[in-house]
Amino acid sequence: MKTIVLSLIALAALIGLSGCSNLGQVNAWEKGNLAKPQMTFEGDPLDQRFVQHTYGSKENSSGGYGVGGGGCGCN
Amino acid sequence: MTPKNHPKPTPATSSVLLASLVLPGLAALAAFSPMLASAESAPEQTTIAIKYSTYQDSQPGLDRVSVSAPQIYVQAPIAGNWSVEASAVSDSVSGASPRWHTQVSGASRMSDERKAGDLKFTRYLSRAAISGSVAISNEHDYASRALGLDARWSTDDNNRTWTVGYGTSSDRIDTTYREGNTTAVDQHKRTHEIMGGVTQVLTPTDLVQFNLTRSAGSGYYDDPYKMQDKRPDQRNTWIALARWNHYVDAYDASLRSSYRYYTDTFGVQSHTAGVEWVQPVGRWTFTPGARYYSQSAASFYVDPVFNANGTYDLGATFMAANAQTYKSFDQRLSAFGAVTLSLKVAYAITPHTSVDVKVEDYQQKAALHLGGSGSPGLDAFNARFMQVGLTHRF
Amino acid sequence: MKPWRTLCIEFSAMASPCSVQMDGQDEHAMRQAATEAVAEVQRIEKKYSRYLKDSVIGRINAAAGGQFFAVDEETRGLLDFAQSLWTLSEGLFDCTSGVLRHAWDFKTGQLPESKKLKEMRALVGWEKVSRDADLVQLRHPGMELDFGGFGKEYAADRAAAVLLRHGFAHALVNLGGDLHALGARALPELQGQPWQIEITHPRPEQVQAGVPLAQLPLSRGGLATSGDYERYFIKDGVRYCHVLNPLTGWPVSHWQSVSVLAANTTTSGALATIAMLKGEHAIEWLNTQDVHYLAVQHDGQLLRSAAAHSLKARP
């Protein structure tokens, strides 16, 4: 399972990065696609709040995405 | 009529833009400043979203916990350079609390309500933003107050953004509301966390992000409703998160992947890997996703002890626990793996309003643990998440 | 609930391909607004074209060396603007420099006869224009007024103002490359994305066919480009373009193209032209104007404004 997941990530990374020579030097006028809603990291705020909160109560890891969220009695 | 000859001219203004405003009709247009992608700016619109989320989990032979949580969220720009975000949720939890060591039918039904809210203010500067937030959560036996402060700033070319954040929370645990249960009376827990991160535009189609979080907490960590549960009064954690968003031009879609590594002083180490494909189709957006989670057991987790004929030996298990300073039978501290499959469908009714539905299927079992050998003797459990939401911008 | 649609009207004006594009729900209202916007562009062309004898410009030019000519409020405003540009550019942007085209023949690619050029240069100079309230006079016969330096851009702004007046805030007016964007796209599936604009590469023979200099996601504002590739000829390896310095009578050569993004297209166009004329001092001057710009130097080097710092051309 682990090897499959890591291989998929590595493969995706290779496909994604194979065509570029100027990593990190992107001009403002090329960022049209990056501004699209499907490219945000945070996504739907309420969706993530609920999901992360629930995972935090069923598993022992929580956090890593931001600071300032409080605790709860579910874990 | 005397012609006026113009002497060496002195302009009333040195700005061509201001000069152009004398032209009829142009003043109305000049109310707006031209928009080129800027690093940090307050949102242009106000967003209101409501969501109804439910969660139902089950273990073989027993429906466990069900949660229903209506939520509301608002984000609004204030006075040009500020924005405010607020959300509130009211969780209703009911059902059987997780059976510890699933062999013992020690399930007791309970119901609880949690009300929580948070408020965040952000101040935008030309290349940076600073936010302050406060969060409050209340349940019958648990109250939490948290504060957060974070800042982010971008390089001139907007290709890299640094973030730094600090958070602190103060929790109070008191079980006396429940028929005089005096396991935990006025107990406290305090945590501090700091986070540093960087987001980098790698190519016109790739964004990556790295975050590192360190937290230190001290106080009451025991689960007051479980027997033989005594945990250390301190827990420090390290969390490393990496995320990658890749835009796929051929489908106008994006592939979002993330990996989080977690380790704490309870001895738990975990890996969380997630991937999502966001596919817009006209007014629809389909987002199938998958998540894999694996954690190791806490150092003080007590495995169930089985006797010679393979049946659970309660006495021996208790004796094993007694031999430890810190101990817990909590399944959540065991070693296991979990897989989630999700699908979210969103539809834009108008340019300002959209609805969304998300369904997730979660399976947690010891056998899914990375490497295959999770904690023995525990039943798997299954959970279903469902969320329905409405978002409106104006 | 009426569906959202995009309306695109293409037309020809000021010797250029033009279009008005808008997102809206009421098709009838959109057509009406767009038709009015196009009519506004045609009105301005008819009123200020130097090629039409009975346009305002035509008649002012015909009266050169003679009587004062009374103008209306709109023309007065444009004359004031021309005056401001002349002073702000320290004489480089001059609406009387149109006569120089009689000396320069870009069609046949001939260098001017020195006698003819001298004759024409004598007729150039805003200081030779007399103004008194709503009266204007070109003091020497043969002098010509020409609003070509900002006419098309002004028309783009006016057309946008028409659309705005009709309540359409998600539109793009494009008059031969001079653009005014009123607001981002409004179709539900586009969710507030900007209009995607391509800036023409000044040396298309040096890059792959159809590859633009840069792609700009534009939500609001006016964008205009001035370049040495619109009308020019090359003789003995030297490029002579149509942007003529009024003080010397000769074309400028420092920039291949300058694109400016400002709050309105009139400003963008004026700044782009002045930048072309200012040569090596253009960048310094543009920086005082608080606008976004992208300039391609004679050697292909790219310079850009601090706000859009990472602008880069395809090599």
Could you explain how this protein is built, in words?
The complex is a heterotrimer of chains A (75), B (394) and C (315). With 75 residues, chain A is mainly alpha-helical. Chain A has helices at residues 2-17, 45-58. Chain A is 40% helix and 0% strand. The longest helix of chain A is centred in the N-terminal third of the chain and has 16 residues, at 2-17. With 394 residues, chain B is mostly beta strands. Chain B has a single domain, classed as Porin, CATH 2.40.160. Chain B is built from 3 helices and 16 strands. Chain B has a 16-stranded antiparallel β-barrel with strand order 1-2-3-4-5-6-7-8-9-10-11-12-13-14-15-16. In chain B, a hairpin with a 5-residue loop joins strand 6 and strand 7. The termini of chain B are far apart. The longest helix of chain C is centred in the N-terminal third of the chain and has 22 residues, at 27-48. In chain C, helix 1 runs antiparallel to helix 5 (151-165) and helix 5 runs antiparallel to helix 6 (265-278). Chain C starts with a strand and ends in an 11-residue tail after the last strand. Chain C has 315 residues and is an alpha+beta fold. Classes of the chains: A mainly alpha (75), B mainly beta (394), C alpha+beta (315). Chains A and B meet through helix 1 and helix 2 of A and strand 1, strand 2, strand 3, strand 4 and strand 5 of B.
From the structure above, extract its key features.
heterotrimer, A: mainly alpha, elongated, C: 315 residues, alpha+beta, T-fold, 3 domains, 15 strands, globular
Write the layout of secondary structure elements.
The complex is a heterotrimer of chains A (75), B (394) and C (315).
Chain A: H1 2-17, H2 45-58
Chain B: H1 16-20, H2 26-29, E1 47-59, E2 62-78, E3 82-96, E4 109-124, E5 128-138, E6 142-154, E7 160-173, E8 187-203, E9 206-219, E10 234-248, E11 253-264, E12 269-281, E13 284-295, H3 314-322, E14 336-350, E15 353-365, E16 381-393
Antiparallel strand pairs in B: 1-2, 1-16, 2-3, 3-4, 4-5, 5-6, 6-7, 7-8, 8-9, 9-10, 10-11, 11-12, 12-13, 13-14, 14-15, 15-16
Chain C: E1 5-13, E2 16-24, H1 27-48, H2 56-62, E3 69-70, H3 73-88, H4 114-121, E4 129-132, E5 135-138, H5 151-165, E6 171-175, E7 178-181, E8 195-199, E9 214-218, E10 221-227, E11 232-235, E12 238-241, E13 255-262, H6 265-278, H7 282-286, E14 292-297, E15 302-304
Antiparallel strand pairs in C: 1-2, 2-6, 3-5, 4-5, 6-7, 7-10, 8-9, 10-13, 11-12, 13-14, 14-15
